Amino acid sequence: MLSLEGIRRRGKQDMTGESKSSGIKSWPEDDQPREKLLKRGAGALSNSELLAILLRTGVAGLSAIDLARRIIEKFGTFRNMSHTDMREWREFKGLGPAKIAQIQAALEIGRRFREDEMRPEQQKITSARDVVGVIMPQMRDLKTEVFKVVYLNSNNRIIEISDAATGTVNQAMPIVREIIHAALQKFAAAIICAHNHPSASTTPSLEDKKFTQELAAAGKLLGISVLDHIIIGGDDYFSFADSGMMTR
Predict the structure, then answer these.
(1) Any bridge partners for residue 225, and if so which?
(2) Burial of 4 (0-12, 13-18, 19+ CB in 10 A)
(3) How are beta strands 225-233 and 190-196 bridged, if at all?
(4) CA–CA separation, 241 and 28 (whole Å)
(5) What is the reported pLDDT for 148?
(6) For 10-41, what is each residue's pLDDT tens digit?
């Protein structure tokens, strides 16, 4: 017969989902995600195993690896996890703010790591694709429009990339005078503008076309070349320069 303490212990194990039959600790050591990572490297782990390490423990009825698999099944990719509404996590009962915060922090570290690899400072720009390679990871999943300006020196190397405006779900309002003024302050010889469309459409609106014309005209008056205006939509982009619209 089980003692009263034994009954309490078993009940606690059932509530946490970490009983001997379902907990990760009961697995062979080589199959436990953390031990597997330490012995074989992070590249040897599946997405679910990597996520399980962040979760550390499971929830009622599920081990950490089982919970990780369910999360992967729902969102599909880590990228999808990084820009989902917090309400979408509520279906995972027992998954509290602390665990969600750990996951979001890890995803953001990964995103910033990719940015560090790009090292935009002093990178030479020869085409719209070069710019897209730098800014797309930052812009493609944004829920509101953000307008960025890439400032270039006389050798078309990046001086700085900065935000010019942040808008609502479907509109940003960059100011031509402020953009040109900033370019003069940074001693930029040329600029490239970019903004995202949260709808994922890359088709330029009438406002996009009008703004591009006004910015190019203002730049010409003050000796700042406006080389391109790029629209980011999901994994795609539109370039005014590539389409021949910058010379019209």
Answers:
(1) 190
(2) exposed
(3) parallel
(4) 58
(5) 94
(6) 444 444 444 444 455 665 544 588 888 888 88
Q: Where are the domains of the chain?
A: 4-116, 120-247
Residue type, 230: I
207-211 own/partner pairs: CB under 8 Å, 24+ apart: 207/171, 209/245, 211/174, 211/176
Cα–Cα distance measured from residue 164 to residue 150, given in angstroms and rounded to the nearest whole number: 10
Question: Which residues on adjacent β-strands are paired with residue 239?
Answer: 230
Predicted pLDDT at 233:
93
216, amino acid identity: A
Q: Which tokens is 54 given?
A: 């962040």
Percent of the chain predicted with pLDDT > 90: 38
Round to whole Å and give the CA distance between 139 and 198. 9
Secondary structure of 73-117 in HEC code, one letter for each residue: HHHCCHHHHHCCCHHHHCCCCCCCHHHHHHHHHHHHHHHHHHHHH
pLDDT digits (tens, 9 = 90+) for 156-215: 999 999 999 888 777 788 899 999 999 999 999 999 999 999 999 999 999 999 999 999
Token reading at 38: 């330490």
Mean pLDDT of the chain: 82
CATH fit for domain 4-116, picks 1.10.287, 1.10.12, 1.10.150, 1.10.3470: 1.10.150
pLDDT over 70, % of the chain? 83
- 188: helix, coil or strand? coil
The amino acid that residue 67 corresponds to is L
- From the list 42, 62, 39, 85, the residue with the least C-alpha distance to 53 is 42
> Which CATH architecture group holds 120-247?
3-Layer(aba) Sandwich (3.40)
